């Protein structure tokens, strides 16, 4: 590649282009492991696993799009808008539009997770018995349609052009509200002895929900922080003058950050053991800070039944 007419910024972008190859490879490898774990994670409801699986699919597609964009960028020495024929420039821009679509798609996956867990909480008595055939297809259609509508809304309403990045943050707010409500509700149910002793199944569901929310906390936090960083970057660095080239940096970094969500699923078994240790430790300590033997025995008995039920469902 001839680098004589390339400045430091162009070389920096080329490095990010090659880095996108690494990110894509990591996404594929980690997703394969994550899908395998999801398949055997029978204690999680099939609806919940389906949504997570679709989320991983969107990450793979998004990473693949970034890779293709990067390869085009490398081919034309980071100046696609100047060096590329009209056909390639058109493809280049369209790929960014598709990438933007999957940006919305992944957001609505987060919405779907919260809504599914909300239904699981409301219908906690019999939700485990409910299995909707082709649930994954319904979710795929709904999320795809909603993402397309949002994407087109921002593209067609020119009045939103100047503030569309900030509005994107507003679209994330329901996720955090739903998550907070779900965490509080399940935490409250777990402390309601009259409720959890009615059925071991209900007790199991409440505790499994709490573990999922505990697991989801870092995922949601990372998602929120990268969304804010992504919006700030787009607002300050990306405009018509630089013809999308800086988007490669933002999408590559975004894909790398979101890989952490796949890692959480891969290490969910180890994290679950850590979660149980935390719960046991917190339950053993009494009000005065001393260990309560009587309470400890009660916890152990509860854990025995809980583990028996868990194994029978696996």
TrEMBL record:
One of its GO terms (cellular component) is membrane. InterPro entries: 7TM_GPCR_serpentine_rcpt_Sre, Serpentine_rcpt_epsilon. Keywords: Membrane, Transmembrane, Transmembrane helix. The chain crosses the membrane at residues 12-39, 51-76, 88-109, 130-149, 169-185, 210-234, 246-267. The keyword Transmembrane applies. One of its GO terms (biological process) is sensory perception of chemical stimulus. Pfam families: Sre. The keyword Nucleotidyltransferase does not apply. Belongs to the nematode receptor-like protein sre family. This is G-protein coupled receptors family 1 profile domain-containing protein. It comes from Strongyloides stercoralis.
